[in-house]
Design brief:
The chain is α/β, with parallel strands linked by helices. The chain has helices spanning about 75-85, 120-135, 155-165, 180-185, 205-210, 225-240, 260-270, 275-280; strands spanning about 1-5, 10-20, 25, 35-45, 45-50, 65-70, 90-95, 95-100, 115-120, 140-145, 170-175, 190, 215, 245, 295, 310.
Length: about 325
């Protein structure tokens, strides 16, 4: 047993760590004065808020420092089945991309069979939302890319948002094209799957979005020029009090199956300090049943570097 500082997902706490069989347990009991202290701080596994697991080899995911991933576009039957194989990593998913007939990504070769629902009207929207909710979706995904095809009208977007809310689901949007990030934010979506990258948002828009939606970073997938636009928008959005969430679009090109150093570097470039970065990574509470505790080496009170995180092992408790 050792004394340790751990992050419960909201704040730093003091507690103890002990083994139970082959499991590591974190408890928030007050450590005795004589207990040796763990060299490092403890969190649960990190969250990637934007992945596409049907496009990657997931065999390495269990050995990564991710504790939860959110899939934002897949065949809902296949992704539900895949989720049963990923322990100790937790999977939340949106199910299929919801898009206008002929809209993005319906014509993309990379889109898995059954991963897109083309919706004409409110009746088809209700059918699709019910299908995703019944299949275990924890959120929904709208694709709204005016550079790649038709998109939903305002009334249908509001209908989808309302239908989702009736199931307790929030809507994440892929917003691409001039004005789309602004447009979707005003129509009630909860998150943007990409920090806005089409254009530099003005200060009034940044302030409005900081008060209404969260941005999933998804910065490292862009080329240098587009990344600069997205990073600049995130810098101002974060400074205005907006919520930034770590996400990588895993599966979009040769992205790592695990924590992405390029994404971490881009988020830091956007001005998020250590505390803000940790919150963007949304680590699980290491006390939760099934959560895998991670240790970030270094003395308690120093700046934790998530790229140095590794699973906590029984040998870490040996004196």
């Amino acid at each position: 047993m050792r004394a340790a500082t751990f992050f419960d997902g909201e704040e730093w706490r003091e507690g103890v760590i002990e083994t139970s069989g082959d499991r590591m347990l974190v408890r928030d009991a007050t450590p005795a004065d004589h207990l040796p202290r763990l060299d490092g701080v403890v969190t649960g596994g990190f969250t990637d808020h934007h992945v596409h697991l049907q496009l990657v080899d997931t065999t390495g995911l269990a050995a990564s420092t991710l504790g939860r991933v959110i899939d934002l576009g897949a065949n809902v039957t296949e992704i539900a089945r895949l989720g049963e194989t990923l322990a100790p990593v937790r999977l939340d998913y949106a199910g299929a991309f919801l898009t206008a007939p002929g809209g993005y990504p319906s014509d993309r070769a990379w889109a898995p069979a059954g991963s897109v629902r083309e919706i004409n009207d409110a009746a088809q929207a209700a059918e699709a939302v019910d299908e995703m909710a019944d299949a275990g979706a924890r959120c929904l995904k709208i694709a709204s890319n005016t550079t790649a095809g038709p998109v939903f009208g305002d009334e249908l977007i509001r209908t989808i948002v309302d239908l989702a809310a009736a199931h307790g689901l929030a809507v994440t949007a892929h917003a691409e094209g001039p004005g789309e990030a602004q447009h979707l934010a005003r129509l009630g979506v909860a998150r943007l799957a990409h920090a806005p990258f089409t254009e530099v948002l003005d200060d009034d828009e940044i302030a409005a979005q900081a008060a209404s939606v969260a941005w999933i970073s998804t910065l490292a997938v862009h080329d240098d020029a587009t990344r600069a636009v997205a990073v600049g928008n995130v810098r101002r959005f974060h400074a205005a009090g907006g919520t930034v969430l770590y996400g990588t679009d895993m599966g979009n090109g040769p992205t790592p199956v695990g924590l992405n150093p390029g994404e971490i570097a881009a988020i830091r470039d956007a001005g998020l300090d250590d505390d803000a970065l940790l919150r963007a990574l949304a680590p699980l509470d290491p006390r939760d049943p099934g959560a895998r505790p991670l240790v970030i080496p270094g003395a308690a009170g120093t700046s934790p570097d998530p790229l140095r995180a590794r699973p906590l092992l029984p040998e870490d408790l040996k004196v």
